Amino acid sequence: MVLVLNGVIQDERPINTHALFLEHPVYRETATQLLSIPTKTVGAPGLLYVCQREMAAVAPHDRNVNIIGSDDATTCIIVVVRHSGSGAIALAHLDGNGTDEAVSAMVARVQELAFGYPEGRIELQLIGGFSDPQGYAEDLFSNIMQSFHKHPLEIDLTQSCVGELNTIVRDDINWPIIYGVGVNIKTGEIFPATFPDKGPDLPLRMARHFTGSHQVLDIYDAAVGMLRIGPFNYDPLRGVDLWLAQSDEFILKHLSTSPDVEPPHFAMQVRATLRYIQDNQFPAVTVFRNNNPHYFRRDETTGCWTPVRY
């Protein structure tokens, strides 16, 4: 009983997005404001990019990060948790896997980064998902709301640009309006964004989507200011050769929850990921030797992530 909607503590979570917007029109207003902001293309320098099934948390004074963000969300939802007193931010790209654990971890990371700062509230923003034909995004919204509603802290929902509010109809097909967002960690400003450079180890990070790994990984070590990938393992994927022999249309149809509205690079990214899985069937052996993570440090000259060699 600790989800706060429009300043009022709720006994029950909203049953769906339509009920939320009907009972609390303020969320239509805040979504309209977000949708009115032009989409920014964000480059790699100073960017902490969060992939699907990942999360990261960062404080405003972090010297290595200017923008934290994620994109390519169709039926997924991007979740932003912020402490209003300290400005500490956690961002996750959720697809329905590991939601409870991710919610708990996000709030915990923000509380850790906010320690010693003035009191503040935990604010929640949800962006992404659209009115997809199968209702995947609606189910995910419900799961996310349930996870936050179960949390012992008061969580103040300040933005919910999801479902029907993030949907536009083109040629009788529902499309997402916003596919991604960035957050300025200094100001907390959130804006629609696209990220051509999604950071290092992308095929490795995406391999988890196709190989039975359900955990939401925390990819940033704020204490040392380094991007951290792994260690993790995944199950071998049968028939990779067969998948790679198929057309882009076949891959789109069978490996996407929303094939009609995926970004144009979807099939190319999937192929790169499948080739990586083909070459690294047991990452615990071939990728994370001695069970060590892959660490990346911000290069002070370029502003981009570079591997830390040991």
UniProtKB/TrEMBL annotation:
InterPro entries: NTAN1 (IPR026750)
GO MF terms held by the record: protein-N-terminal asparagine amidohydrolase activity
Pfam families: N_Asn_amidohyd (PF14736)
Coiled-coil stretches: none
Annotated source species: Anopheles dirus
Signal sequence interval, chain numbering: none
Gene Ontology cellular-component annotations: nucleus
Protein's GO biological process: ubiquitin-dependent protein catabolic process
Protein name per Swiss-Prot or TrEMBL: Protein N-terminal asparagine amidohydrolase
